[in-house]
Amino acid sequence: MFKGSMVALVTPMLEDGAVDYDSLAALVEFHVRHKTDAIVAVGTTGESATLDVDEHLAVIRHVIETAAGRVPVIAGTGANSTSEAIELTEAARSAGADAALLVTPYYNKPTQEGLYRHFKLIAETVDMPQILYNVPGRTACDMLPETVGRLSQIGNIIGIKDATGDLSRVARHQAVCRDGFELYSGDDATTVDFILLGGLGCISVTANVMPARMHEMCMAALEGDVARARELDRQLIPLHANLFLESNPIPVKWALHEMGMVSEAIRLPLTPLSENLRPRLREAMQAAGALPR
User: Does the residue 279 lie in any domain?
Assistant: First the structure.
């Protein structure tokens, strides 16, 4: 259903911390122009953890309205409360999102059976395509391939964003999931290998800064042009690494600020990128071509 470079979009903010809807619309237009294959609104990179419910849904609606069908919109609707995840997912469906992205419940550390029942109930309650999202480094909860395999049998659970960085999971998911279940990388640095092993693309942080090149890289890998994919990836390696100098989305928001696209405002408990790290990220952006030297 989806493939290629899917940006995990930042949520731009004004200096007082309010959502900057004008800059948000400008970012959507930027991604339409530069051939991003789908936009993920209000995922981890979009600061979903510190937006209240009204803001969360307003951002989703604004992205959908601005995209106006020119690029698919995937709405981040996960929560560690099953009832809240259902509420957010239904609201995203009503707003016209093309799919929902549902992170594993964080902090409460459910069992594998709890994860299965959580996602099963959301899928049975809200009739829209749903993508699982496993990022144990942030949630302290790892959804094992066997659980993903069980969930893949539910028709409207269409795929998984795997942000473990563990390439062996591609084969493990392929072994236990139904035919046609879609695998997306959540780790920019291993995306090319992930696709070559059978993945369909990446839900990407780097695409915020270099959308056209991420699109081209993913398409080259999907088309089997390994040399081209690896060359494009080589150009992006400095960004893949340095966009995680501090917790995401701290570095990527600062990078977009350097590009003149958003303010550097970010919500507590996150803070703007540390002064001593800024030269490293600026140099990486210059090396990748995101900024002039």
Answer: no
Q: Classify residue 253: in a domain, yes or no.
A: no
Closest-CA residue to 197 (of 205, 207, 206, 187): 187
In whole angstroms, give the CA distance from residue 233 to residue 185: 14
What is the structure's pLDDT at 293? Answer: 85
Residues 6+ apart with CB under 8 A from 60: 41, 42, 73, 75, 91, 92, 95, 97
- Please indicate, yes or no, whether the overall pTM of this predicted structure exceeds 0.85: yes
Q: Which residues are catalytic?
A: 133, 161
State pLDDT tens for residues 78-103.
999 999 999 999 999 999 999 999 99
Q: Considering the domain boundaries, does residue 258 fall inside one? A: no
Distance, CA of 189 to CA of 210 (rounded, Å): 14
In a domain, 175, yes or no: yes
Residue closest to 60 by CA, chosen among 42, 47, 79: 42
Sign of the alpha-carbon dihedral angle for 283, 289, 292, 293: positive
Q: Is residue 224 helix, strand or coil? A: coil
Q: How many domains does the chain have?
A: 1
* Cis preceding-peptide flag for 249 (omega within 30 of 0): yes
- CATH code (residue 228): 3.20.20.70
Domain extent, residue 84, equals 4-234
Q: Is the pLDDT of residue 1 over 90?
A: no
Alpha-carbon distance 83 to 79, whole Å?
A: 9
Spell out the alpha helix ranges (H) of 126-185.
136-139, 145-152, 168-176
pLDDT for the residue 248: 97
Confidence of residue 121 (pLDDT cuts 50, 70, 90): very high
- Model pLDDT for residues 31-42, shown as the tens digit of each residue: 999 999 999 999
